Amino acid sequence: MGARCVIFDIGGVLEITPATGWTEQWEKRLGLPPGAVDERLGEVWAAGEIGAVGEDEVRGRISGALGLDAVQVDAFLADLWEEYLGSANAELISYVRGLRSRCTLGILSNSFVGARELEEKLYHFGDLVQEVVYSHEIGVRKPEARAFTVACSRLGVAPESCLFVDDLAVNVEAAQALGMRGLLFEDNARTVAGIEDHLTGRT
């Protein structure tokens, strides 16, 4: 095995992202049935995750699907990003910051158009790791195999040297299928222990 590498997911790992109920609030405000926002915007969400639409098109499609004016679209997107961005998992981020001298570090995140600019402004992930790989920029999302191979290629590492940390089992399993080690995020203590095992060769 070559130099060790750790790759992190963002939402639910480096960011704490509890549900805020914002779509339900908009449905009540607009007099829509439960689930209507995601039903009407499902194609937009999917396209935005792989960069098939730009931010202006997202705004236009939200406006058309929900009958919102420009001010309302701004408010709708503000609520979306409030949940999406969550808050920093400060304890884990502090630990990761101390790993730079010990291994190669990367991020692989399913994302939405506009995420890089907002997350960089809030959390400075570009200073935390060597490469931040977003699904909306590479045109493919986890758990598809190519998302992981792109991340490894950009980091210049072999999959078998990498530990991948994610809060979704399907993504961890996809990484393992490519020869990476996988660690399901449950809490900071177990995550740190798993990373230390990987870096010291105990696993």
Automatic annotation (TrEMBL):
Q: Which domain of life is it from?
A: Bacteria
Q: Which residues form a coiled coil?
A: none
The record's listing under InterPro entries reads: HAD-like_sf (IPR036412), HAD-SF_hydro_IA (IPR006439), HAD_sf (IPR023214), PGP-like_dom2 (IPR023198)
Q: Which GO terms describe its molecular function?
A: hydrolase activity
What's the short name of a Pfam family annotated to this entry?
Hydrolase
Q: Which UniProt keywords apply?
A: Hydrolase
CDD domains membership: HAD_sEH-N_like
Q: PANTHER family this protein is in? A: ALPHA-D-GLUCOSE 1-PHOSPHATE PHOSPHATASE (PTHR43611), FLAVIN MONONUCLEOTIDE HYDROLASE 1, CHLOROPLATIC (PTHR43611:SF3)
Q: What is this protein called?
A: Hydrolase
Organism equals Streptomyces nanshensis
Task: Give the organism's phylogenetic lineage.
Answer: Bacteria, Bacillati, Actinomycetota, Actinomycetes, Kitasatosporales
